[in-house]
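Weekly puzzle thread! Below is a chain. First person to post its structure in token form gets bragging rights.
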Amino acid sequence: MSTTSVPDAVHKVASILAEAERTGIPCTPIRDQFAEGGLADAYAVQRVSIQHRVAQGRRVVGRKIGLTSLAVQRQLGVDQPDFGALLSDMAVPDGGVVPAGRLLQPKIEAEAALVLGADLPHAETTVADVLRAVDFALPALEIVDSRIADWDISIVDTVADNASSGLFVLGGAPVPLTSVDLRSVGMTLTRNGEKVSEGSGSDCLGGPLNAAVWLASTLAAMGDPLRAGDIVLTGALGPMVPAAPDDAFETHISGLGSVRVGFAPHTSAIPDQGDTQ
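Winning reply:
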């Protein structure tokens, strides 16, 4: 694809994804809109989409890291994670309920979240830099979603679609990193009281801090570094699972605590008032 055609394609794909979100009707995969590879174009779509949302009054509050599982990386044919933006209206309170119809085809996964107390401006970020910058950690649930029909995604599809972001839920009890080794935490996720996923900190790129180092270095090299106050969702600690109306999820992460979220039931049709007696 010639460079002169990239801006038109980027805006076209951003519009397709926005329309899918607006209408609640997933679109077909968008990877064929770009030349082979297309990852830089996909991130360009993501930036355009986020800029549009910010212009509408939404606020970027952090970043999420995706594809931290080596098995999923192999499935999509990549050798590194990806990232997306977290916006203020994506936050759901601990114990809150996701309204019916808010998401298209949600899935859920448990993660460790970091909240920064200092900037991470260096393209060669170290673990020590991250340890100094993190104010505290929290247990988190990420509710991923895809505007692409049937989750038929490649790396290009998911990156353009803001790394398949949906919503997120943070626990409310901050934990300093001096009190927990994120590599060794154990995670269990239950749905309606039944265990549906489990894992450990080491399942996330060998440890959530490794994921945070990758993200900080990548964003700094792009000229858009992580800043004090940012939330970082570091990646799944175990397999994601589908979420359906009326489901209730809770995760417990050792050393970090628990966090919960529910999904509202399907909205019932309003009866015809003329049929009432």
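Puzzle host: Confirmed. Bonus trivia for everyone else. The CA atoms of residues 159 and 231 lie 19 Å apart.
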